[in-house]
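Forwarding these from the shared drive since the link keeps breaking.
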Amino acid sequence: MPEGHSVHRIARQFDRNFVGRRVSASSPQGRFAEGAAVLEGRELVQAMAVGKQMFLEFEEETWLRVHLGLYGAWDFAGEILVDPTIASANGRMGQTNQRGTELAEPILDGGGENSLTSIGAPRRARVHVRMSEQTKGLADEGAEWPPPVVGQVRLRLLTASTCADLRGPTACTLQTPDEMAATVAKLGPDPLVGDPAEGEERFVRVVLRKPTPIALLLMDQAVVSGIGNVYRAEMLFRARLNPHTPGRQLPEETARELWRDWERLLAIGVETGQMMTMDDLAPEQYRAAMANRDDRHWVYHRASLPCRVCGTEIVLEEIGARKLYWCPSCQR
């Protein structure tokens, strides 16, 4: 399932390519035909992400809520105006690691998490882009326009030059402003939405009164928005925190550090398109990590391998029906 950084990147892609433009809307699959008919010909007013959910506001106070879930993805095609504020994997802007080391050459991720196309350098390109947790690469330039419908497209949004196809979402619904506000109100704080300081207070207040293990609280979208399996495992390791510790047993400062670490990691994820969770890497290590997801995490996906810090075998267990990776020595 796409974690928070991916959804924020998708929202920024919509902001660059669709906001301020009238769109043609259709549901080739037919499952969203009535909703598409409502959106047809309306101007997109704004795009925003809150955690793992995205909201597109159209004229006449109509909101489109999309939750990609496990299988959803947006495919963009046409003239893609990419965000100049976000680093690119294609090297046009270079890449900067957490310590500020600029890398002049492109770094391409063979694992599929990032792409040279998802959010790139400040240019206009006729490309094909898949935006999900498993981003795909470019299609041939000069392809048919508008692109042919491929597979089960729930919703197609089309301007004169850009196309966005939605496939396989968990949720794709129209909402009134009140309904949209009610949906957002049920979500936990997101460091990139509203005042981060207020978000921190809200997060800490909830965590410190819960008897629930912190590993479950971090995945609860009503407690904090956007954290998924990868960020959860990595944040707990970075904090050297036993995942079974009840929230109410955490020192307040530990809870605050968890929030601030999420704020930092989310910003890195939005900038790079990758869930980079290791700090202070030398340029060569950073290059290897950006190219291979197995080199950019402390514990995630490392079951039975030695801990990078102490050498203890990383444990894999199931908690809340999701896999959890952790080091029983570092995270006592």
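-- next protein --
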Amino acid sequence: MLSFLRKLTAATPAPVAAPVAAVTPVAEKVDPFMLGLHDAQLSGWFNEETGELYKGFPVSADDIVIDVGCGDGGNMQFCGRRGARLIVADIDGDKIEQARQRLSETPARSVECHVTDGNPLPIADGTATRVVSTEVLEHVDDPAQFLAELVRVGQSGALYLLSVPHPSSEDLQKDIAAPAYYEKPNHIRIISEEQFKTMVSDAGLEVISHSQYGFYWSMWMLLFWEAKVDLSNPDHPLLNHWANTWQALLSSPRGAQIKDALETVVAKSQVIIARKP
């Protein structure tokens, strides 16, 4: 359910999206998912120039990258374009097959796929130089066990890119979202900033940075619940006007400054970059 929020790169374009026009007519429909990708790039995701999947998380052809909870492989598509060796794992076999097909079209050194619940991961100790797991910990029954497996498969010095929903957005939606959104197999816990940092540190990783982003998606989701439309075709005036408004804001002279200010108040996700000693 709502897996697009877990993997923002479902249709990640290779180049950074070009700036939009200064004024967007309200009548012109904006693709909310492509706008979300552009917004994510502004927050530090998918930087083709620096080779960073996320700010502070560079990927090169020399890396062995594991993505646990990979979905259909959006994040790893970026890593594949860098020429890295890729290992993907997810509990959903259909998603893994989609990831396999997508990643086979990249210049990745190799692609290895696993259907698994992560307990344990069918991957040898000390395999990866980079470990990715985005928007997964809020779903799993035992976060400590899950993190222990992520740590086990990383080499000494490996970098970790981990994210979970930010509590500001989760709390905002609690009384508005569909009840199933906060029931298994969806979000069974809300993780505070301090809890997230403690989880990662207790797993034996050194936290390098902790950031947050995604005001656009937080507001979009709030309106989505009210619009009561199908996610495959989220066409509703509330959502269309919001996407147009956000695109116009990003095009304004102080759009980036306003975006940053809003994301300190309400963010869709929090991201930790960590290192294995």
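Strands lie at 45-47, 52-54, 57-58, 64-68, 85-90, 110-115, 128-134, 154-165, 206-213, 269-275. The domain at 46-214+267-275 is CATH 3.40.50.150 (Rossmann fold).

- D.
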